[in-house]
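[Archive record]
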Amino acid sequence: MTAIREFAPAKVNLTLEVPGSRADGMHEVASLVAFASAGDELSLDPAGGPGIEVTGPFADKLTGTNILARAVMLVGEQLPGLTLGSVKLQKALPVAAGIGGGSADAAALLRVAQRIPGAQSSDVDWLSIARSLGADVPACMECRPLWMTGTGHNVEPVAELPVLDAILVNPLAAVPDDKTAQVYRALGAATLGADYVAPSAPKLTNRLELLDFMRARGNHLATAAETVVPDIGAVLGALRALPNVEYAAVSGGGPTCFGIFQDRRAAEAAVREIAARRPNWWAVAATLGSARCAA
């Protein structure tokens, strides 16, 4: 069997509400998620020797236990006779960036693993593996617009979500290892009442409805995220100062932010302007909606 390639698209929180904290200490969320045309590239060669190789512009930013190593271990526990072979990752997305890069990589590996002969066992609970790897991994398995609730594990497809032309911008600032935990502590969300019911997925069939929904819901973590990584404020300021920008916000707990534009040409012009003014930042034009998964 030849090597299988898979795309690991960035996950962008178009909206992110945090209704409150739960009795178990976790936080309840309600988030509209889209996937970008920008992402990492993963390949798996079942005939290769076991191991994980990471290359690309952000390969040296990965520290600690690689989530791919954990994914390989969990798959091996479920299918002890399966040989995954060699895994290669081209790391094009910034690390700890609020766009689910590591989760997208793990999800891509799980999707690929399911296509290896001998892995099509009905006894394997792939969703359980995804959930054990992280709150965003089940969503990243889908590669399509989703409504996320619960702690992020509950995902519901959102049909007919309009595709948006956008740019993703990251200041490449240093972030603490426990960035997400710090952001939620800074948020100081109230405890949820026992009668809380998660909101239903929105029905947004045109671009104007989608933008209005994004402006109205926003990202509840934005202020807390800027407290933890102050450079987020500079990125949002730069995005909102761009000509033709329709909306700008931070994704997840940051520091990656996104700006929405009328079309691809305007988005690409915005990337050039950001690059000229802030050459040390990471900026890329992308579409937000469904993403290709198979590379």
